[in-house]
């Protein structure tokens, strides 16, 4: 009779734990580099099975708790006895290398032990809410190694960083790996070893290092050299953070470096004598200016002092330019050219060196406005600019000779300059007058250039600013079409003009400046031509009324002098006076006045131009430079000139006063409109607030005078648009 073997009894604690200790000893020998073979699958299964059996036996033979405590005890015995002494025996970078090695070994050891004790991880630990095997192992390393050596390790790393800052090469990988351990411990334990035990001290060390460096360099370096040094340091710190610091440290490290090197010495840097921002701007240090902008842009409010000095420099340089022009009594054109060059230089700083930053554009604007709007050589800035534009847009100007590109570039520059002009409405009125003269006298170099200039003004200031100018250009095109049709009409009816050639420009009243209309006795030859055009135009536009502006007209007369025939280009009034001498060679002033019926001031201008000007077509008795009512005029048959065609100019009429009067009148209307618009929306408003809002609205076109605003308020009260508040005399009410 056969018998089966009895099943094995429960694993005793001493037997099972002895087997686990043997496995742990082998694992330690492998990690310490002894000639020990790796664990085989059979050995691994054997150790796992021992733990499994010891955990699944019925009480009192269930050794789960004892195994968990034994696992922790194994690590507690190994780490202080083997790991810590090994690390403590090393110094400097070797300390980091040993720590890195021991940390890696520790993680490998935990990995294998977790496999052996895996059954604990599955059941016993969750049931009893214990730390995981990995957490327990990391906690042992944290308490028994890290807490003991972290100060020493930190000091070694900070020392290496300082040495690297001084140009020495260090083992970056060792630093990186140790700092990675700091981060891993932080992630595993929920504590903050990296942030609290390293980063905070690293930032303090950075502050101290760069404070010493800044104190040394700020005394000996020029501003460009100091900025170059700061830029290099910031580049190195970014590189350092990228290679071996945690990503969260980069922004903090860079900010700390910026603060110590730049922000704390900001004013001292940019105001350095003989090399600061003023000197860099003066000497066109483009690269250094760009570097300054790049560096201070990254600092909160770092650009404000730089922009303030930029504004101050623009102001002082502009005032110096203004004084130079004024002292030298140079021409208006030379002044504007200098200002254009000056603006182009500092605008290029704003766009190229300061990357179009709004702080610097604002500083440039405020700096320019401080000197640009002053009168110079007896002329306002608005008038001077309009005169400059008139000059280069005329035929034969120096700019025109340079070609279309030069004209367009000049237009662009002037349009930018207008942004700083306070009396934009005055510029607009002067420009409209001068545009009208260019168009009507055929002195405009190119209509396309005129349109381009107007379009730039429109972009800058809106359609209200340019609507009349655009209307003038359109008018001229329509007038040319009308003239072409009239010439066709003349060909079909050659007798109507008595053989004379007539060219008529029809203008729309609202677009063009107001011109004085004078009724006078039209010469018969001219009358036939005018009558012919009236007949033609009545058929074309019966509803429109024609008003003839003879002061703008011109005639070509044939002068038959003793020596030769000369073609005379004269005004309509000059032609009327000269045609009188076809019948009689001699006329008194009173005779001419009776024949022409021109106003005295206009007749004096005409006779002065013909008898006292460059070309003496008439001889005057007595021979003086002034015209009097007793003078007698005679046709100068002996007059001659080397040219076969001459233009007889009229004395210039001063338009400036009339333009300023028109603008002042228009400003009153603008102020009235602004006040009514404000009160219509607000209903009740205090005096100071009303004046302030009115100024803000009108500042775009001109700088209103506060006294004028007060007068306009009183006028609106008299006209029942506004009324004073009965309870508060300093407030106004809007009357619908």
Automatic annotation (TrEMBL):
GO biological process, one term: ubiquitin-dependent protein catabolic process
A molecular function (GO) term: ubiquitin protein ligase binding
Matches recorded under Pfam families: Cullin, Cullin_AB, Cullin_Nedd8
Domain Cullin family profile: from-to ranges: 380-611
Top-rank taxon: Eukaryota
Family: Belongs to the cullin family.
PANTHER family given in the database record: CULLIN
Name recorded for this polypeptide: Cullin family profile domain-containing protein
Source organism phylogeny: Eukaryota, Viridiplantae, Streptophyta, Embryophyta, Tracheophyta
